[in-house]
Each structure stands twice: as C-alpha cells, then as structure tokens.
Amino acid sequence: MNPKPYVVTEVLQLTDVVRKSVVTIVPSAGFLLLIFTFGFIGSENALFGFEMNIGGVIADPFVLLVVGGMVYGLFRRVRPDTLIAIRSEGVAVRSVNVPWSSIEQVVVIQPEPSAYEIDGPEVGLRLTPDAPLPDGLSSLVTDPSTSADIPSGLRTGLDGQPLDIERLVETVQTYAPSTVSVSELHGKAEQTLTT
Q1: Quick check: 121 pLDDT over 90?
Q2: Is the dihedral of CA 42, 44, 50, 56 positive or negative?
Q3: Prediction pTM value
Q4: Residue 126 dihedral angles phi and psi, to the nearest 5°
Q5: 2: pLDDT confidence band, cut at 50, 70 and 90?
Q6: H-assigned helices in 58-109
Q7: Which has the closest alpha carbon to 128: 185, 195, 190, 181?
Q8: Integer Cα distance of 175 and 186 in angstroms
C-alpha cells in the first residue's frame, strides 16, 4: 500500500484573506503612486524611454511589471499555508522542513481540558540527538512547562481541522525509516502508536 502524503493546510477566514491582501497590495500600490507622482508615465517621461500600446492604453513596461508582480504576489499570499506535511522526504511543520534522518518520533499532542478553552490536537517532532538544526529554524527552544518537550518551531496546531491519526500513522510507517515511531501524548501519559 502506498498512501498519498498526509497534508493539512490552514483554513482561510475572510480576515486572513484581507490581512494577506493588504500586506501584498499596500507596498506595491505605494510604489506605483510614487511612479505616478514623479511623472514616469507619459510619452516624454517613460522610465525606460519607450511605451507600449495595449488595447488603446499607453503604459510604461515598468508599470506593467509592477502591476503584474502585485497580482502574482496577491495570489501567492492568499493561498492557505501548510500546517503539516508528511512526505517521502520527511516532515514539514509549517515552513520548517525536517528530513527523516533527523526525526526520532512524530508526536500527536492531545489537548488537556482547561476551564478556559479547549485547543485541538497538535502534531510535533522529536529529533534525534545528533540532528542538525532543521531548515527554517534559527534555534530550538523548548518550553519546560509543557510535558511534550517539543520546541514550538517543531509543532503545530491544526487550525480546528480534524486529525486522522490512523492515516498519519500509516503515512509515517510508509515513508519513514523503521527507527521513527509515532506516539500520542495526553498530558504526561504517552502511548506509542507504532511498533
């Protein structure tokens, strides 16, 4: 059996779309405004000394390049981020990629019920003792108040999405070396899910 990679992406809310759009559009729009203000648009002031006639609209190629970059950037920013991806080459936790050779254990961290809120499960990685610092991290800092002892950069919540533990275990067993195990952590109690 060869399962597909196990990938969970964030669920985009309208506020996320607006925030990501503004972060992309505002700097580019400011740059365009600067160009228009200093008169780089027009026959005698074209930035590169020539213009293009596109459907009856005369435009400087530089402006077209900036507008095209804005549109491309907007589509790249608004797509959902990957929260966890278990693939043949290793595991990605958000933007941190960890090869299988550096992973000792994949850990499903179940939330502890509290009086204030109940978080969903998290998925994290325990590294081998000799593992190099994964790409995407500048340091590994653990929080001693958590029983998981997994650095925050190597664990992620699932943004309210359900966790398919059976599929996660099956995917790890398919792609990972036999030395990598999967466990489930409930508070201080830990149970190994793979043999």
Answers
A1: no
A2: positive
A3: 0.65
A4: -105, 130
A5: low
A6: 61-78
A7: 181
A8: 25
